[in-house]
Specification:
4-stranded mixed β-sheet, binds zinc ion, globular, 365 residues, 24 strands, 5-stranded parallel β-sheet, 12 helices
C-alpha cells in the first residue's frame, strides 16, 4: 500500500519536488513499482511540508505542575493534530518516556526536568535545587535523563526585595560556566529561559546553545547572538501574556513596569532579532498556561511582527529539524509530513488548517 503525494513537496529553502510517495513509513521520490493510484485512499493533493517542530513545549506539565498520562496524551495529540510531529520538550516534571513507544504520538526530544531554585520560578514546574552550587551536578543528571538538551531557568523575579523586586539572574557566572561545560562534556546542549537583560552576557560567556524568550536582549547582545549564531525561541504567545503578568504584580512596580515595556515592544524586538540575523525558532510554551496545539498561532504572531512568511515556515520545519538533528523530507526519510491546501510561504494562516497529517507513514489527522 502506497500513498501518492501530488505535491508540491517542500524539501528545504531551495528544493521543491513535484510529487512524492509514502511507502510503509518512509518517503520516496521514485514511483513504486506497479503503483496505479487515482483512488480516494491512495492520493493526497496539496503543499507537502515536513512535520512542524515546536521547540518550546512542555508535555506532562499543567497549570499545577505534573499531570497524569491521560492528560499528557491529550496534550501530545493536540500538538500532533496541529501538524506538530517533532517537539523539543523544554522541561517537564513528568516522566514521558512511554510516549516513545507510541507510534501515534509526536516524536519528543527532551530537556529533562528544567532546573531552578526555590521561589525563583513557577511552583511545581521546575526541579528546585537547594543552592546554586548544585547546578553543575544537576545538569549532569538531567543530561543523562534527556535527549541531548538541558534547560535552565536563567532569571526570574526576586521577590525578597519587596517593592524593588525585579527580574534577576539565578546563578553566579562561574556556576553557569561549570554547568554548561558539564552539559557539553555529556554531549548535551543547553537552553535557558531568560527575560532579563542582566542574564544574557553571562549565559553567552558560559557558551549556552539556545535562548528561550530573550525579551531582554539589548542591541549589543543581539549582535552577540547573531555573531555566535545562537537561536532564540521567540515565544510571542507567551510574551503576549506579559501585560497580564504585570497586572497581577501590583506589589512589584519595578518588575511590572519592565514586563509591560517588553510586552509593548515584543513585535519590534523580534523584528530586531530577525533583522540582525539571529536565527528565530518557533515555540508555543504550551503546558502550564498556554494550550497545546497552538504552533500555527505562534506562526501568525511572528507574521504580525513582520517576519516574512517563508522564513517562518522554514524555521518551523526544515531549519528546526536540521538544528535538532532530525530529518526533513529527503529520500527515504520517515514520512512525518503535513499537507496544506495552499502554500503557507505565501500566508502562514494556511498552517491553521492542514488537509492531512501523516506520522510515521500513517494518516493521523
Ligand atoms: Zn516554557
Amino acid at each position: 500500500m502506497a500513498l501518492h503525494l501530488r505535491g508540491p513537496v517542500l524539501l528545504d529553502d531551495e528544493r521543491v519536488a513535484p510529487e512524492a510517495w509514502v511507502v510503509g513509513d518512509r518517503v520516496t521520490y521514485e514511483r513504486p513499482h506497479g503503483f496505479v493510484g487515482g483512488g480516494a485512499d491512495d492520493e493526497l493533493t496539496g503543499w507537502v511540508l515536513p512535520g512542524l517542530v515546536d521547540v518550546h513545549c512542555h508535555i506532562g506539565l499543567g497549570a499545577a505542575g505534573a499531570v497524569d498520562a491521560a492528560t499528557a496524551q491529550r496534550q501530545a495529540l493536540a500538538d500532533r493534530d496541529a501538524g506538530v510531529l517533532l517537539i523539543r520538550d523544554a522541561g517537564s516534571p513528568s516522566d514521558t518516556r512511554w510516549i516513545d513507544g507510541r507510534a501515534d504520538l509526536p516524536r519528543l526530544v527532551r530537556a529533562g526536568h528544567h532546573l531552578t531554585l526555590p521561589k525563583r520560578y513557577l511552583r511545581h514546574y521546575g526541579r528546585e535545587l537547594a543552592s546554586p552550587e548544585e547546578l553543575p551536578a544537576a545538569v549532569g543528571e538531567e543530561a543523562a535523563r534527556g535527549d541531548g538538551w538541558v534547560k535552565l531557568v536563567g532569571d526570574w523575579i526576586e521577590r525578597d526585595l519587596g517593592e524593588a523586586g525585579d527580574l534577576a539572574p539565578l546563578w553566579p557566572d562561574e556556576v553557569l560556566r561549570a554547568a554548561v561545560a558539564t552539559a557539553h562534556a555529556a554531549g548535551a546542549r543547553v537552553t535557558a529561559h531568560t527575560f532579563a537583560t542582566e542574564t544574557l552576557d553571562a549565559l553567552l560567556d558560559a557558551g549556552v546553545d539556545c535562548l528561550e524568550h530573550a525579551t531582554g536582549a539589548s542591541p549589543g547582545q543581539i549582535e552577540r547572538l547573531a555573531a555566535a549564531g545562537i537561536p532564540v525561541t521567540a515565544t510571542l504567545l507567551q510574551v503576549g501574556l506579559f501585560e497580564q503578568i504585570a497586572a497581577r504584580a501590583g506589589r512589584y512596580p519595578v518588575y511590572a513596569a519592565r514586563m509591560r515595556g517588553m510586552h509593548a515592544r515584543r513585535h519590534e524586538h523580534v523584528r530586531d532579532l530577525f533583522d540582525a540575523g539571529v536565527p528565530l525558532l518557533l515555540g508555543t510554551d504550551a503546558g502550564g498556561t498556554i494550550a497545546h496545539g497552538r504552533l500555527p498561532d505562534e506562526a501568525a504572531e511572528l507574521a504580525r511582527a513582520g517576519i516574512p512568511a517563508a522564513s517562518i515556515v522554514a524555521a518551523a520545519t526544515w531549519r528546526a529539524r536540521r538544528w535538532l538533528g532530525a530529518p526533513a523530507l529527503s529520500e527515504g526519510a520517515p514520512a512525518d509530513l503535513v499537507v496544506y491546501p495552499a502554500d503557507p510561504r505565501e500566508d502562514v494562516r494556511v498552517l491553521a488548517a492542514p488537509a492531512a497529517v501523516i506520522l510515521r507513514g500513517a494518516r493521523v489527522a
